[in-house]
Design goal:
Elements (H helix, E strand, L loop, with lengths): L1 H16 L15 H13 L7 H7 L4 H12 L3 H19 L4 H7 L5 H12 L3 H16 L18
Helix pairs in contact: 3-4, 5-7, 5-8
């Protein structure tokens, strides 16, 4: 009887008087909009560094397992694929700007090397980084000569491969 009384008192004190951080919760098994915004901001700010699942999960106070499942439910892709897509998109922008070599772009967006960048760009965009360069250079040459090539963008495909 005494043990039951202490347990009831402890539960009462914890429920009514405890102060603790509340993890972002969601009734549908997805990350909250605020948690998703925090993760996206973190990924975009740290693309040049290694981004671990543990770091992303700690950012929103979840275990890596629960974070990965909630992130995928919210975005449709696993966290690792999301980071790769962000890196490829930034690499595409840098390559098409005409200011950097492929190897410099690979390092600038956090890939291990040029071949690592090439593999993921080919898988996600369907073209190699080198294939973007001649198109960009030809467009610059035409613009320099005052001609219009009639091409609005070099790549208009969907960035998510299904």
């Amino acid at each position: 009887y005494l043990e039951s009384l202490f347990r009831t008192l402890a539960i009462h004190l914890l429920r009514d008087h405890a102060v603790f951080a509340v993890a972002p919760s969601s009734s549908n098994g997805r990350l909250s909009a605020e948690a998703l915004r925090q993760v996206r901001d973190y990924v975009h700010e740290h693309l040049t560094r290694e981004i671990t699942l543990e770091a992303l999960a700690a950012l929103v106070h979840l275990s890596p397992y629960h974070f990965a499942h909630r992130f995928k439910a919210a975005t449709g892709v696993p966290p690792y694929q999301y980071v790769l897509q962000c890196r490829v998109e930034r690499a595409k922008t840098l390559l098409m700007s005409g200011e950097h070599a492929i190897s410099a772009v690979a390092q600038a967006v956090g890939f291990a090397g040029q071949s690592h960048l090439t593999r993921h760009v080919k898988r996600i965009l369907g073209v190699t980084p080198g294939a973007l360069l001649p198109v960009r250079k030809n467009r610059q040459k035409l613009r320099k000569n005052g001609e219009d090539d009639g091409i609005a963008v070099c790549y208009t495909g969907d960035l998510t491969k299904k």
